[in-house]
Design a protein that fits this description.
The protein has about 350 residues and is an alpha/beta fold. Helix content is about 25%, strand content about 25%. The protein is globular.
Protein backbone atom coordinates (compact mmCIF):
# COMPACT_ATOMS: atom_id res chain seq x y z
CA UNK A 1 0.00 0.00 0.00
CA UNK A 2 1.43 3.36 -1.09
CA UNK A 3 0.88 6.38 1.14
CA UNK A 4 2.10 9.82 0.07
CA UNK A 5 2.51 12.80 2.38
CA UNK A 6 2.61 16.16 0.61
CA UNK A 7 4.44 18.72 2.74
CA UNK A 8 7.19 18.23 5.32
CA UNK A 9 6.39 20.77 7.99
CA UNK A 10 5.16 19.91 11.47
CA UNK A 11 2.04 18.08 10.26
CA UNK A 12 3.58 16.24 7.32
CA UNK A 13 6.69 15.04 9.12
CA UNK A 14 4.74 13.79 12.11
CA UNK A 15 2.22 12.06 9.85
CA UNK A 16 4.94 10.25 7.91
CA UNK A 17 6.70 9.02 11.04
CA UNK A 18 3.48 7.90 12.65
CA UNK A 19 2.36 6.11 9.48
CA UNK A 20 5.31 3.72 9.42
CA UNK A 21 4.71 3.02 13.10
CA UNK A 22 0.93 2.58 13.03
CA UNK A 23 0.21 1.27 9.51
CA UNK A 24 2.26 -1.87 9.07
CA UNK A 25 3.43 -2.56 5.54
CA UNK A 26 2.75 0.95 4.29
CA UNK A 27 5.21 2.32 1.74
CA UNK A 28 5.46 5.95 2.85
CA UNK A 29 6.95 8.75 0.75
CA UNK A 30 7.17 12.43 1.68
CA UNK A 31 6.92 14.91 -1.19
CA UNK A 32 8.36 18.34 -0.39
CA UNK A 33 9.73 21.30 -2.38
CA UNK A 34 13.10 21.12 -0.56
CA UNK A 35 15.20 18.48 1.20
CA UNK A 36 15.07 20.37 4.52
CA UNK A 37 12.65 20.38 7.41
CA UNK A 38 11.88 24.05 8.10
CA UNK A 39 10.81 25.13 11.59
CA UNK A 40 8.40 27.75 10.41
CA UNK A 41 7.76 29.18 13.85
CA UNK A 42 11.48 30.01 14.05
CA UNK A 43 11.71 31.92 10.79
CA UNK A 44 11.81 35.24 12.67
CA UNK A 45 15.08 33.95 14.17
CA UNK A 46 16.41 33.20 10.68
CA UNK A 47 15.54 36.76 9.67
CA UNK A 48 17.41 38.25 12.64
CA UNK A 49 20.36 35.87 12.30
CA UNK A 50 19.87 34.18 15.67
CA UNK A 51 19.03 30.71 14.25
CA UNK A 52 18.94 28.81 10.96
CA UNK A 53 15.45 27.30 11.48
CA UNK A 54 16.10 24.25 9.30
CA UNK A 55 17.82 20.88 9.27
CA UNK A 56 18.06 17.99 6.78
CA UNK A 57 14.67 16.38 6.29
CA UNK A 58 16.24 12.92 6.36
CA UNK A 59 17.34 13.52 9.96
CA UNK A 60 13.70 14.07 10.95
CA UNK A 61 12.23 10.93 9.36
CA UNK A 62 12.20 7.31 10.45
CA UNK A 63 14.15 4.73 8.46
CA UNK A 64 12.29 3.44 5.44
CA UNK A 65 10.45 6.66 4.59
CA UNK A 66 11.12 7.85 1.05
CA UNK A 67 11.72 11.47 0.10
CA UNK A 68 10.77 13.00 -3.24
CA UNK A 69 11.88 16.60 -3.73
CA UNK A 70 9.50 18.45 -6.01
CA UNK A 71 6.51 20.75 -6.38
CA UNK A 72 3.11 19.08 -6.59
CA UNK A 73 0.75 20.56 -9.16
CA UNK A 74 -2.31 18.31 -8.81
CA UNK A 75 -3.71 15.26 -7.05
CA UNK A 76 -6.34 13.27 -8.91
CA UNK A 77 -7.63 9.70 -9.07
CA UNK A 78 -4.79 8.21 -7.06
CA UNK A 79 -2.01 10.06 -8.88
CA UNK A 80 0.15 13.04 -7.96
CA UNK A 81 1.37 15.22 -10.81
CA UNK A 82 4.63 17.01 -10.09
CA UNK A 83 6.10 20.05 -11.82
CA UNK A 84 8.20 18.75 -14.69
CA UNK A 85 5.81 15.90 -15.48
CA UNK A 86 6.75 13.20 -12.96
CA UNK A 87 3.86 11.25 -11.43
CA UNK A 88 3.47 9.24 -8.23
CA UNK A 89 0.71 6.74 -7.48
CA UNK A 90 -0.98 6.52 -4.10
CA UNK A 91 -3.60 4.51 -2.25
CA UNK A 92 -3.90 7.15 0.45
CA UNK A 93 -2.75 10.75 0.50
CA UNK A 94 -2.05 13.17 3.35
CA UNK A 95 -2.17 16.84 2.38
CA UNK A 96 -0.05 18.90 4.78
CA UNK A 97 0.93 21.87 2.63
CA UNK A 98 0.48 24.48 5.36
CA UNK A 99 -0.47 28.10 4.80
CA UNK A 100 0.80 30.74 2.38
CA UNK A 101 2.09 34.30 2.43
CA UNK A 102 1.03 36.98 -0.04
CA UNK A 103 3.20 40.04 0.63
CA UNK A 104 2.48 43.51 -0.65
CA UNK A 105 4.82 44.53 -3.46
CA UNK A 106 7.81 46.33 -1.99
CA UNK A 107 7.88 44.22 1.18
CA UNK A 108 9.91 41.10 2.02
CA UNK A 109 7.98 38.18 3.56
CA UNK A 110 9.29 36.58 6.74
CA UNK A 111 6.88 33.62 6.79
CA UNK A 112 8.57 31.57 4.05
CA UNK A 113 12.02 29.97 3.91
CA UNK A 114 13.03 31.92 0.81
CA UNK A 115 11.57 35.18 2.07
CA UNK A 116 13.26 34.86 5.45
CA UNK A 117 16.57 34.33 3.66
CA UNK A 118 16.09 37.48 1.59
CA UNK A 119 15.04 39.41 4.68
CA UNK A 120 18.11 38.22 6.56
CA UNK A 121 20.43 39.37 3.79
CA UNK A 122 18.67 42.73 3.47
CA UNK A 123 18.75 43.26 7.23
CA UNK A 124 22.45 42.41 7.46
CA UNK A 125 23.22 45.01 4.78
CA UNK A 126 21.52 47.87 6.63
CA UNK A 127 23.79 50.47 8.26
CA UNK A 128 23.37 51.68 11.82
CA UNK A 129 20.43 54.01 12.22
CA UNK A 130 18.42 52.52 9.35
CA UNK A 131 14.64 52.14 9.73
CA UNK A 132 13.04 48.68 9.63
CA UNK A 133 9.25 48.37 9.48
CA UNK A 134 7.56 45.09 10.41
CA UNK A 135 4.05 44.84 8.96
CA UNK A 136 1.60 42.69 10.90
CA UNK A 137 0.24 43.00 14.43
CA UNK A 138 -0.18 39.28 15.15
CA UNK A 139 2.24 36.83 16.74
CA UNK A 140 4.56 36.71 13.70
CA UNK A 141 4.86 40.48 13.62
CA UNK A 142 5.52 40.80 17.35
CA UNK A 143 8.10 38.00 17.29
CA UNK A 144 9.88 39.45 14.27
CA UNK A 145 9.96 42.98 15.68
CA UNK A 146 11.30 41.92 19.10
CA UNK A 147 13.86 39.52 17.59
CA UNK A 148 15.23 42.15 15.21
CA UNK A 149 15.19 44.90 17.86
CA UNK A 150 17.07 42.72 20.33
CA UNK A 151 19.58 41.42 17.78
CA UNK A 152 20.21 44.75 15.98
CA UNK A 153 20.06 47.44 18.64
CA UNK A 154 21.70 49.85 16.22
CA UNK A 155 18.58 49.91 14.02
CA UNK A 156 15.27 51.70 14.44
CA UNK A 157 12.43 49.16 14.44
CA UNK A 158 8.75 49.91 13.91
CA UNK A 159 5.75 47.56 14.15
CA UNK A 160 2.59 48.41 12.22
CA UNK A 161 -0.72 46.59 12.48
CA UNK A 162 -4.43 47.33 12.79
CA UNK A 163 -4.31 46.01 16.36
CA UNK A 164 -0.96 45.03 17.88
CA UNK A 165 -0.46 41.76 19.78
CA UNK A 166 -4.05 40.92 18.90
CA UNK A 167 -3.67 37.17 19.48
CA UNK A 168 -3.50 37.96 23.22
CA UNK A 169 -5.72 39.86 25.63
CA UNK A 170 -5.68 41.50 29.04
CA UNK A 171 -2.47 41.30 31.04
CA UNK A 172 -0.83 38.98 28.53
CA UNK A 173 -1.26 41.56 25.77
CA UNK A 174 -0.06 44.30 28.11
CA UNK A 175 3.09 42.29 28.77
CA UNK A 176 3.79 41.87 25.04
CA UNK A 177 3.34 45.60 24.43
CA UNK A 178 5.60 46.38 27.41
CA UNK A 179 8.31 44.16 25.92
CA UNK A 180 8.05 45.97 22.60
CA UNK A 181 8.39 49.30 24.38
CA UNK A 182 11.35 48.04 26.42
CA UNK A 183 13.12 47.15 23.18
CA UNK A 184 12.26 50.63 21.84
CA UNK A 185 10.06 49.38 19.02
CA UNK A 186 7.85 52.16 17.66
CA UNK A 187 4.21 51.05 17.65
CA UNK A 188 1.75 52.19 15.00
CA UNK A 189 -1.85 50.93 14.92
CA UNK A 190 -2.88 51.35 11.30
CA UNK A 191 -3.18 49.26 8.14
CA UNK A 192 -0.41 49.25 5.52
CA UNK A 193 -1.90 49.65 2.04
CA UNK A 194 1.27 49.91 -0.02
CA UNK A 195 5.04 50.06 0.02
CA UNK A 196 7.16 52.17 -2.31
CA UNK A 197 10.53 50.53 -2.85
CA UNK A 198 11.77 53.42 -4.95
CA UNK A 199 11.11 56.19 -2.43
CA UNK A 200 11.47 54.09 0.72
CA UNK A 201 8.09 54.46 2.41
CA UNK A 202 5.00 52.57 3.46
CA UNK A 203 1.53 53.96 2.87
CA UNK A 204 -1.20 53.78 5.52
CA UNK A 205 -4.96 53.44 5.31
CA UNK A 206 -5.28 56.59 7.41
CA UNK A 207 -3.81 58.48 4.47
CA UNK A 208 -0.30 59.11 5.73
CA UNK A 209 3.01 57.44 4.95
CA UNK A 210 6.12 56.49 6.92
CA UNK A 211 9.71 56.34 5.70
CA UNK A 212 11.47 52.99 5.86
CA UNK A 213 14.65 51.39 4.58
CA UNK A 214 13.27 47.83 4.79
CA UNK A 215 9.67 46.63 5.07
CA UNK A 216 9.17 43.07 6.40
CA UNK A 217 5.81 41.41 5.73
CA UNK A 218 4.75 39.35 8.77
CA UNK A 219 1.21 38.39 7.79
CA UNK A 220 0.06 34.85 6.97
CA UNK A 221 -2.87 34.75 4.58
CA UNK A 222 -4.56 31.83 2.89
CA UNK A 223 -3.27 28.43 1.81
CA UNK A 224 -1.67 27.03 -1.36
CA UNK A 225 -4.04 26.34 -4.24
CA UNK A 226 -3.20 22.62 -4.56
CA UNK A 227 -6.48 21.38 -3.08
CA UNK A 228 -8.62 23.65 -5.26
CA UNK A 229 -6.50 22.82 -8.34
CA UNK A 230 -7.10 19.13 -7.60
CA UNK A 231 -10.87 19.52 -7.61
CA UNK A 232 -11.35 19.01 -3.88
CA UNK A 233 -14.08 20.93 -2.11
CA UNK A 234 -12.53 23.91 -0.32
CA UNK A 235 -13.86 26.72 1.85
CA UNK A 236 -13.66 30.44 1.07
CA UNK A 237 -10.02 30.53 2.24
CA UNK A 238 -9.03 27.58 0.03
CA UNK A 239 -8.73 25.04 2.87
CA UNK A 240 -9.84 21.45 2.30
CA UNK A 241 -13.36 20.77 3.58
CA UNK A 242 -13.03 17.65 5.74
CA UNK A 243 -15.36 15.29 7.59
CA UNK A 244 -15.07 14.76 11.37
CA UNK A 245 -12.24 12.28 10.71
CA UNK A 246 -10.11 14.76 8.70
CA UNK A 247 -10.86 13.12 5.35
CA UNK A 248 -11.69 15.21 2.31
CA UNK A 249 -15.44 15.20 1.72
CA UNK A 250 -14.65 14.89 -1.99
CA UNK A 251 -12.27 11.91 -1.84
CA UNK A 252 -12.08 9.68 1.24
CA UNK A 253 -8.59 8.51 0.28
CA UNK A 254 -7.27 11.99 1.00
CA UNK A 255 -6.66 13.36 4.50
CA UNK A 256 -5.95 17.06 5.11
CA UNK A 257 -4.10 18.16 8.24
CA UNK A 258 -2.66 21.38 9.63
CA UNK A 259 -3.19 24.84 8.20
CA UNK A 260 -4.66 23.57 4.91
CA UNK A 261 -7.56 21.73 6.60
CA UNK A 262 -10.88 23.48 7.20
CA UNK A 263 -11.47 22.21 10.72
CA UNK A 264 -14.09 24.38 12.52
CA UNK A 265 -12.45 26.41 15.27
CA UNK A 266 -8.88 25.56 14.27
CA UNK A 267 -6.23 28.24 13.82
CA UNK A 268 -2.92 28.25 11.98
CA UNK A 269 -0.03 26.93 14.06
CA UNK A 270 2.06 23.94 15.11
CA UNK A 271 -0.35 23.34 18.02
CA UNK A 272 -2.95 22.52 15.38
CA UNK A 273 -0.70 20.65 12.96
CA UNK A 274 0.68 17.97 15.26
CA UNK A 275 -2.54 16.72 16.88
CA UNK A 276 -4.39 16.68 13.56
CA UNK A 277 -1.62 14.71 11.84
CA UNK A 278 -1.50 12.14 14.63
CA UNK A 279 -5.28 11.75 14.67
CA UNK A 280 -5.57 11.35 10.89
CA UNK A 281 -3.01 8.55 10.91
CA UNK A 282 -4.89 6.83 13.73
CA UNK A 283 -8.11 7.08 11.70
CA UNK A 284 -6.46 5.39 8.73
CA UNK A 285 -4.99 2.67 10.95
CA UNK A 286 -8.43 1.98 12.47
CA UNK A 287 -10.16 1.87 9.09
CA UNK A 288 -7.60 -0.58 7.69
CA UNK A 289 -8.15 -2.78 10.74
CA UNK A 290 -11.95 -2.64 10.25
CA UNK A 291 -12.35 -0.64 13.44
CA UNK A 292 -14.61 2.38 13.95
CA UNK A 293 -12.61 5.65 13.81
CA UNK A 294 -13.08 8.44 16.30
CA UNK A 295 -13.83 12.06 15.29
CA UNK A 296 -11.07 14.60 15.75
CA UNK A 297 -11.29 16.39 19.13
CA UNK A 298 -10.20 20.03 18.93
CA UNK A 299 -8.17 20.87 22.04
CA UNK A 300 -5.98 23.90 22.69
CA UNK A 301 -3.85 24.75 25.72
CA UNK A 302 -2.50 28.24 25.13
CA UNK A 303 -1.01 30.86 22.82
CA UNK A 304 2.71 31.55 22.97
CA UNK A 305 4.57 34.59 21.65
CA UNK A 306 8.35 35.05 21.80
CA UNK A 307 9.60 38.46 22.89
CA UNK A 308 13.27 38.01 22.03
CA UNK A 309 15.57 35.19 23.09
CA UNK A 310 15.02 35.36 26.84
CA UNK A 311 11.44 36.55 27.13
CA UNK A 312 8.03 35.31 26.03
CA UNK A 313 4.42 35.32 27.09
CA UNK A 314 1.98 32.43 27.11
CA UNK A 315 -1.72 32.98 27.64
CA UNK A 316 -3.73 29.92 28.63
CA UNK A 317 -6.84 29.07 26.63
CA UNK A 318 -9.88 26.89 26.98
CA UNK A 319 -10.05 23.84 24.74
CA UNK A 320 -11.96 25.82 22.12
CA UNK A 321 -9.07 28.37 22.05
CA UNK A 322 -10.99 31.12 23.83
CA UNK A 323 -8.62 33.08 26.06
CA UNK A 324 -8.30 32.77 29.82
CA UNK A 325 -6.93 35.48 32.09
CA UNK A 326 -4.02 33.34 33.35
CA UNK A 327 -0.65 33.75 31.68
CA UNK A 328 3.07 33.12 32.09
CA UNK A 329 5.76 35.59 31.15
CA UNK A 330 9.48 36.33 31.28
CA UNK A 331 12.00 33.50 31.37
CA UNK A 332 9.30 31.06 32.50
CA UNK A 333 7.20 31.97 29.48
CA UNK A 334 10.25 31.61 27.25
CA UNK A 335 11.00 28.13 28.62
CA UNK A 336 7.38 27.05 28.13
CA UNK A 337 7.36 28.39 24.57
CA UNK A 338 10.61 26.55 23.79
CA UNK A 339 9.22 23.33 25.24
CA UNK A 340 6.08 23.59 23.11
CA UNK A 341 8.03 24.38 19.95
CA UNK A 342 10.53 21.58 20.53
CA UNK A 343 7.70 19.16 21.29
CA UNK A 344 6.02 20.12 18.03
CA UNK A 345 9.22 19.72 16.04
CA UNK A 346 11.10 16.85 17.66
CA UNK A 347 8.72 15.18 20.00
CA UNK A 348 8.30 14.61 23.55
CA UNK A 349 9.33 11.71 21.75
CA UNK A 350 5.80 11.60 20.71
CA UNK A 351 5.96 14.82 18.71
CA UNK A 352 7.26 14.45 15.18
CA UNK A 353 8.32 10.89 15.87
CA UNK A 354 4.66 9.96 16.33
Amino acid sequence: MKVLVVGAGYAGTLAANRLVKKVKGAEVTVVNPRPEFVERVRLHQRVAGSAEAARPLRSMLRDGIGIKVGEVEKASEGTLLLAGGDTLRYDHLFLAVGSSVRPLPGTVPVGTWEGAGRARAALAALPAGAQVTVVGGGATGVETATEVAERRRDLRVRLVGERLADSLSGRARDRALAALNRLRVDLVEDVVTGAGAANGEIRLRSGGSLPTDLALWAVVSGVPSLAADSGLEVDAAGRVVVDPYLRSVTDGRIFAVGDCAAVPGARFGCQTAGPQAAHAVDVLARLLADREPEPYPLRYVGRCVSLGRRDAVMQFTRRDDSLRDAHLGGRTGARVKEFIVRSAAFGSRKGISG
